[in-house]
Amino acid sequence: MCYYWCLPFFANKGYHPNITVHPECNIASAQAHEFAVNLQELHATLKSEISTAQQCYQCSADVCQIPAPDFEVSQQVLVKAQFFQTTQPSKKLLEKYLSLYKIIACPSTHSFTLHLPNSMHAVHPVFHVSMLKPSTPNPFPNCSEPALAPVVINREPGYKVSQIVDSKIDCH
């Protein structure tokens, strides 16, 4: 099967580039009219082929698309900490999500504007839905542990150890 119709020159001109010249051919206006009609048919065919190809690509792209989120304005969400620089020395020990932030706007279907604290003034406040996680309510509503206040030791914050639960001394 020959696919000459998909070459760009043929699609624009209706014929293949030919270096040889044939002076004996006399083109009449009927031939020019037929040529223009054939060229319009070719362009219509190519438009439909491109549309069909775009629909095929759209179907495969829709499979991977993230569904529309259920977030609403004024809802509290968690933000992934993956792309933020922190003072934590090891990324392994870093929390997966930052603290709760309030949604203040929805500029598009898959992005949300968050109200960030002044300490994060260098961060753009619009986040994609893949970077957000809805806050889950406390499974034990009447039980909550207040955060312990840090103790300053040698000008560094630290925490008091309330008890040692288990220990093991390895002599090997």
From TrEMBL:
Identify the taxonomic lineage of the organism of origin: Eukaryota, Fungi, Dikarya, Basidiomycota, Agaricomycotina
Pfam family for this entry, one: SH3_Tf2-1
Q: Where is the Tf2-1-like SH3-like domain?
A: 76-134
Recorded protein name is Tf2-1-like SH3-like domain-containing protein
